[in-house]
Amino acid sequence: MRDSASFSPRAARVSRRAVLGLAAAAPLTAAAPVSARPGRSAPVGGARLGASGVQVQAAAAGLPRKLTARSWLVADHASGEVLAAYNAHRRLPPASTLKMLFADTVLGRFERSLTHKVTDAELADVPAGSSLVGIKPGITYTVAQLWLGVFLRSGNDAVHVLSHLNGGLAKTVAQMQARAEDLQALDTHVVSPDGFDHKGQLSSAYDLTLFARHGLKNADFRGYCATRTADFPAGGKKTFQIQNTDRLLTGAWGLGTYKGLIGVKNGYTSHAGNTFTGAATRGGRTLLVTVMHPEPGGNGVYEETAALLDWGFAHAGAARAVGALVEPLSEGGAKATPARARAGRGVAPGAGGATARDSLSWGLAGGGVLALLAGGAHALRERRRRDATEEGRHRR
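Above: the chain's sequence. Below: its structure in token form.
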């Protein structure tokens, strides 16, 4: 992979037809940043994160080859630098990864030791087909046990009980939306606190990574998402064991545990497919990876997350940022500004000074020109086919 600035006109003589082919194929590799388009606001986190396609500096080549996700992002937890991304702000159904925002919003409102006896009414509005931890009316639970049900089993029953404790579903949804706006997660629209399939409930790889980063500042959040197994009340003095559904944490379903993994949340629905945000620490450095909607089946979402974490740890020292995870407004973060006010300023602070010129994901020098010309028409047809398939799937 080469930086686009290294291309020399002498390296290849391109005919007029070839130039037209390049123009047609270019959007597949490096669309113009959103901030460069008149009348549009600059994307949160930097101009390159608003561009379609892979965004990575040429010096940090070697991204995993088999990535099928419709959106993904790799970021440094401490600095907030985004090291690589693909369609970072694409709005997609988040499934249960939205529970990270629920936890970040509600977690500090109740003491862990508070006890609560569950009623029928608190479980009456749990959507049919939900993932459940097995909460029963008439049984008394501590708040800590309810949160274990949320994090380990992704229990919508636990989410609904906690939401009712918090004043009801509508109030909780409003609080979550307000928290998302404070975090500057502007791709997110909250319809339900559990992440279940609801029309208009959307987020993005960028926003989910914001939720994870902010949530991990809370010790209870970190503790719950890193818990592999726990005993859960079954009534009286009886308990049953629950296991975390994060396969990289537990090593279930034929996967080995990922070295250094500390959480955070996986999700699946028939509409959203698989989505996962994971965090891992190695050598004193913590990376965050979000993967949304890879090809269905098997362990794909975990394998692609692990591959991106591996890449991040291998290249974190050399990779220049292509964007940044912004800070919450309530914690001094700078509010996203319209594109006109950012003209000529490149990307957000921490993005390494990248400009539109070096936003190409893959170099076009030498043989890259020939490969792009040969594959451009096919790639365009393939993209149209995938878009049509995705549109059909979302209509179901």
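The longest strand covers residues 273-282.
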